[in-house]
Specification:
about 450 residues, eight-stranded parallel barrel, seven-stranded antiparallel sheet, globular, alpha/beta
């Protein structure tokens, strides 16, 4: 039996690798955030939350009518599940809205030992059809995060056959493997990707090597030595020289131009990837997707009018090239990061506003990257606020000493700003920073822009 697709306002679900990022995401429009605890997650280096930090995060979210989910999506081996029941009960009692789980063992433990704690199926479980959603719904799950490999056509068909909540990725990094099911890191760096240790081996550089079979040729071609005297082959590229090594690195996903399709097909939650990204990334991407949803629900015309601004805004944050993943077809070689780069970020995150004095027109800012007197900067704030100005009267906050250049990250500075800015506003520097570009031949070079 098919269901009628109900168009609803989807939540913006943002990543929060730290308590600071949690608060920033919510301030900039996220309806919910997902975090990692100190157990059972897949981001061992993402600044995972203690129970005390979770409690503070939940309180902050509740005060802003937002929710906090905890990712517990590791693949458990024997013994890994010990203590999980108590851990899930603690999350429930702290006020966590749901846990995101993929392993059936952890799902069973959470359901049995922490009743009342909602369970969402992780994308790691590779849900790609409505029968799978119906299966998990019968086991009491409230939401399924679809596999990234699901097309828009398949998503529409899934929604017709289930009323289970659907969460779908709309922005961020794409794993080169099938929904994150990868063991490259296990072998390349002895770090288990499915238990929180992925070293992103897919994004390393690779090449083909011509390995001679005869001993004499091998010795001749392996003249160089490495640590311990190990022979290193120096003849590369079986069929000619390759100036740029090959990488299995996928471009990032961005569905900002296709928010209407997500809404019309009944997606309940639009998920942004990136718990290890900066506060600038989290704030900007959360704000852009919230603005896109608001615009389309106002009218399709409103969305189309603002769409170019939304796309431009996303290119003000540090990220890879962007595409739509699997939604409109299987990605080909043009959806991987090698060869000539087609587009680069246009701004660099340089600071955030700590406070603003209306009387003196002085902003206290926390520096994140190099700032110089006279730099063209943009203030960006919640609600899609943007104001341009120049760095004027740059000085150290502690001594009020005038300086021409501030090179030390996290330093507090004063600048004169002729208009009011708000605490938490992000500061960007136009056309700044080092980027990697590629020649038409494939050779890489680093340039300053």
């Amino acid at each position: 039996m098919q269901n009628t697709i109900t168009k609803t306002r989807p939540e913006v679900l943002a990543p929060a690798g730290t308590l600071e990022k949690l608060k920033v995401a919510i301030d900039y429009g996220a309806d919910a955030v997902y975090i990692g605890g100190q157990a059972y997650g897949l981001r061992s280096r993402a600044g995972n939350f203690t129970f005390e930090e979770m409690a503070e995060g939940v309180a902050y979210a509740a005060a802003h009518d937002a929710k906090v989910y905890v990712a517990a999506n590791m693949v458990t081996h024997e013994g890994n599940e010990k203590g999980a029941g108590e851990w899930f009960r603690t999350l429930r009692d702290l006020g966590i809205s749901a846990v995101i789980v993929s392993d059936p063992a952890l799902i069973a433990i959470a359901a049995a030992e922490a009743p009342g704690l909602a369970i969402h199926l992780s994308t790691q479980a590779s849900a790609t059809n409505y029968e799978t959603l119906q299966f998990w719904q019968k086991l009491g799950l409230e939401r399924v995060v679809l596999a990234r490999e699901v097309s828009m056509e398949e998503l529409a068909e899934i929604r017709k056959h289930t009323d289970l909540e659907i969460e779908a990725f709309v922005h961020g990094a794409m794993c080169i493997s099938y929904s994150g099911r990868c063991v490259l890191s296990n072998y390349m760096s002895l770090r288990d990707a499915n238990r929180g240790g992925c070293s992103q081996s897919c994004r390393w550089k690779y090449d083909l090597y011509d390995m001679p079979f005869s001993g004499a040729e091998r010795d001749q071609e392996s003249a160089r030595t490495a640590d311990g005297g190990r022979k290193v082959p120096i003849k590369k590229s079986i069929n000619g020289q390759i100036p740029e090594e090959f990488s299995m690195s996928a471009v990032d996903m961005s569905m900002i131009e296709h928010i209407p399709d997500m809404i019309e097909n009944g997606v309940n939650s639009l998920k942004i990837e990136g718990r290890m990204k900066s506060i600038h990334y989290v704030s900007t991407v959360s704000m852009v997707y919230k603005k896109a949803i608001d615009a389309y629900l106002d009218s399709p015309e409103t969305f189309e009018n603002i769409k170019p601004q939304l796309v431009d805004e996303l290119w003000k944050v540090a990220q890879r090239e962007l595409d739509t993943g699997f939604y409109y077809g299987t990605p080909d070689e043009n959806k991987q990061l090698f060869g000539s780069r087609r587009k680069i970020p246009e701004y660099k995150f340089v600071g955030e506003v700590v406070s603003y004095d209306e009387n003196t027109k002085v902003a206290t800012i926390r520096q994140r990257n190099v700032i110089e007197e006279g730099d063209a900067i943009e203030f960006s704030g919640p609600g899609f606020r943007h104001v341009d100005t120049l760095v004027q009267n740059l000085r150290l906050a502690e001594t009020d000493e005038h300086i021409d250049r501030a090179p030390n990250p996290m330093e507090l500075l004063h600048i004169d700003v002729p208009f009011a800015v708000q605490t938490g506003d992000m500061i960007r520097k136009s056309g700044a920073g080092l980027i990697n570009l590629y020649e038409k031949s494939g050779a890489a070079k680093t340039v300053r822009v």
